[in-house]
Amino acid sequence: MSTSSGSPESWIASFCSLLGHEYFAEVSEDFIEDDFNLTGLQTQVPMYKEALEMILDVEPEEDDEDEEDEEEEEEDVSGDARDTRPHAGERRHHSRIASDLSVIESSAEMLYGLIHQRFICSRAGIQQMSEKYESNHFGVCPRTNCNQTRTLPVGLSDIPGEDTVKLFCPSCLDVYVPPNSRFQTVDGAFFGRTFGALFLLTFPEYDLTRSGNDTVTSLTRSQNSDSDMLNGVFKKNIAPGLGPNKIYEPKIYGFKVSEIARSGPRMQWLRNKPQDINVLDEARQFAEEHGETDDDDESMNLNGRAPARRRPAGNARLRQQQRQNQNGSPMAIEANGAESEL
Amino acid sequence: MDDFGSESDSDYASYWRDWFISSRGNEYFCEIDEDYLTDRFNLTGLNTEVQYYQHALDLVTDVFDLDCDDDMREMIEKSARHLYGLVHARYIVTTRGLAKMLEKYKKSDFGKCPRVMCHSHPLLPMGTSDLPNMKAVKLYCARCEDIYNPKSSRHAGIDGAYFGTSFHNIIFQVYPALIPTKSTERYIPRVYGFKVHAAAALIRWQNTQRDDMRRRLRKMEVETGFKDGEDDIEEDDDNDIEEDEEIVGAVELNVATAGVLVPAVERGGVA
Ligand SMILES: [Zn+2]
Ligand SMILES: [Zn+2]
C-alpha cells in the first residue's frame, strides 16, 4: 500500500521540514493507521480519505499503470468526486483534478495537525517531543527573570482556526508569542491545550531551573523524598522563575515607585510565589486548621512541620467542604500510576 | 518598521546623528537635539567616561575635522557611539526627550510584549543598571510590569545604561494617561480540561495576593487601575462553571485512550 518509492521523502517528513514547522513531531504511521486514534476526525476535515492517503503517501494501485490516462477521465467522475463512500476511493483518486489537489493538500495539513494534537499526548509522541525539547527546538522564555528556560509549544484552543501556536514557559507558567513571525501562521490547535501541562506531568524530573543554553538535567529524589515534593511535583520545579527576587521592582533614581502612586506596581502578584513554598500545601493546611489527621502515620515529622504530602488527604465529601471553606482547595484526581511514576 | 537605508554610512559624517539613529540595530535610540549636546552642563562627568572625549563629541556634533588613520578613526567612532548612548540616557528623561521617546513608543518602535495576555502592548527600552558595561538593554511592558529580552540579536548587545533604570518609569509619571489598564487575564495550565494541582495552588495564592493589594489600595482610596468589571475582588476567582477537579502528580499515559480523551465541551484556554 504505502509507496514512498516515487518521492525521496515522505509527506510527513517534508511537512515537518517546512519553514515554520519546526515545532511539529513526526507522527508515526502506526499511530495514524490505527483508526481508533482518528475517531471523530472524519467530520472535521473535507476530503478526509484523500487527505489521509496523502499523509500516508498512499496511492491507489491503478495509478501506477494508468498515470497517463488521468487527464482524460476527468469528466467521468467529476459529479461524485466528493463522494464519501469508503469504497469509492480508487476511482476518485484516479481522477483528481488540480483544484481538488490543493483542497486535498490543505485538508491533509489540517488532518495532520489534528492527529498531531493527539499524537503528542500519546506515549510515543510525548517521547518524541521530549527529544525535541532537549534539543532546544521550542526556544526559550523571553522573560528576563526566567533565565532562558526552555518553553513548550501549546494551543489556547483545541479547535482549529481560532488562534496560532504559543509557547508555554514552565518557569513563569505564562504563555508567549513565538519570536519569529513564521510561527504566526501555525495553528495552535495542532498542539492543543493539553500537551504543555501533560508534558510536565509526564517528565516531572526535568530540572526546570536550567537555562536553555545548558544541557537538560534531571532531578532525583533524595532519601527523604517527601521533603523534595509538593503537590505532586518537585518543589524546585514549582515556577522557579517566580518569587520575591524574580519580580521586577520599578525604581526612579534608585527609589522604589510606591504602590500608592498612580503609576505604582499593580501586577507583582502575577510573578509572585510564597517565600516558603510549603504554604501551597493546601491539604496540609486544611488538616492543621481542622485538626484533621490522616490515616497513615507520616503526619508528624522531626522538624516540627508536617511533611509535604503529594496529594490531599481525606475523602471527597471532606474535600468538597474544604473547597467551600477555603475558596477552592484541591479535589484531586489521581491519574494512573501517580504514586509509582515519580 | 524603520528604514535601514543601506547607503547611509560613515561617509555621511556631516550628519552623524542621522546616520546613527537610522543604522540597523539602533532603532531604540531617538535623536538628541543639537542644543542639548552643545550645552556642556548636560555632559558633566562624561569626559572621564569616554575615550577621546573631545574628538568623539566633535564627531557627534558634525564638527570633526581631525586628520587621522583608519584605526584611530575607528576608535573615535566607537567612542562617539558610547558618548551618544550615555548622553541619550540623560536626554530621554528631559521634556523633549520624553516626548520623542513617546512618539516612538506609540509606533511600537521598541517592539511589542511577547506575553499573550498583553495583546501586543508596546514595550519601552530600559537598563537594569545605570552604569555602562554592566547589563544589556531589556524591554519593559507597562501592562504586565515585567521585563523581557529583545528578540533580535542586534539589540541584545546594546548597553542598558544608554536608557537607564528610570526613564521607563518616569514616562508614566509624566504622562499618567499612558498607564495601561491592568488585567487579571491569565493562562491556566490544563490537562484534558482539568487544572493541574501544583499550578492551580500557586495561582490561588497569587489571587489572594492580588485581592489583598486591591483592598490596601481601596483603603487608601487609590485607583487600582484594573479593567472595568475586573475591579471587584472576586470571591470565587476560581470561577468556572466547570468542575474544580485537579490533576495531581505524574501521569501514566494510556496509549489507548490518550488520543480520544478530548473533553466534550470546549471553553477558552484562558480563564
Ligand atoms: Zn518564563
Ligand atoms: Zn506585557
From TrEMBL, chain A:
GO biological-process terms attached to the record:
regulation of transcription by RNA polymerase III
Q: Which Pfam families match?
A: CK_II_beta
Composition bias of kind Low complexity appears in: 313-327
Q: Region annotation Disordered: residue ranges? A: 60-95, 286-342
Superkingdom field = Eukaryota
Give the matching PROSITE patterns: CK2_BETA (PS01101)
Compositionally biased residues, Basic and acidic residues: 79-89
Q: Indicate whether Oxidoreductase appears among the record's keywords.
A: no
Q: Which UniProt keywords apply?
A: Kinase, Phosphoprotein, Transferase
Give an example GO molecular function: kinase activity
From the UniProt record, list the coiled-coil ranges. Answer: none
Q: Name one GO cellular component term.
A: UTP-C complex
InterPro entries, A to Z:
Casein_kin_II_reg-sub_N, Casein_kinase_II_beta-like, Casein_kinase_II_reg-sub
| Positions with biased composition (Acidic residues) | 60-78
Family indicated by similarity: Belongs to the casein kinase 2 subunit beta family.
Q: How does it assemble?
A: Tetramer composed of two alpha chains, one beta chain and one beta' chain. Tetramer of two alpha and two beta subunits.
Function per UniProt: Regulatory subunit of casein kinase II/CK2. As part of the kinase complex regulates the basal catalytic activity of the alpha subunit a constitutively active serine/threonine-protein kinase that phosphorylates a large number of substrates containing acidic residues C-terminal to the phosphorylated serine or threonine.
Q: Which PANTHER family match?
A: CASEIN KINASE II SUBUNIT BETA
Which protein, by its recorded name, is this?
Casein kinase II subunit beta
TrEMBL record, chain B:
Q: Name one GO molecular function term.
A: protein kinase regulator activity
Q: How the protein assembles, per its UniProt entry?
A: Tetramer composed of two alpha chains, one beta chain and one beta' chain. Tetramer of two alpha and two beta subunits.
Matches recorded under InterPro entries: Casein_kin_II_reg-sub_N, Casein_kinase_II_beta-like, Casein_kinase_II_reg-sub
One Gene Ontology term of the biological-process aspect is: regulation of transcription by RNA polymerase III
**Protein keywords:** Kinase, Phosphoprotein, Transferase
Task: Spell out the family assignment given in the record's similarity comment.
Answer: Belongs to the casein kinase 2 subunit beta family.
Question: Which segments of the protein form a coiled coil according to its record?
Answer: none
What protein name is recorded for this chain?
A: Casein kinase II subunit beta
Establish whether keyword Kinase is in the entry. yes
Q: Per the record, what is one GO cellular component?
A: UTP-C complex
Query: What is its biological role?
Result: Regulatory subunit of casein kinase II/CK2. As part of the kinase complex regulates the basal catalytic activity of the alpha subunit a constitutively active serine/threonine-protein kinase that phosphorylates a large number of substrates containing acidic residues C-terminal to the phosphorylated serine or threonine.
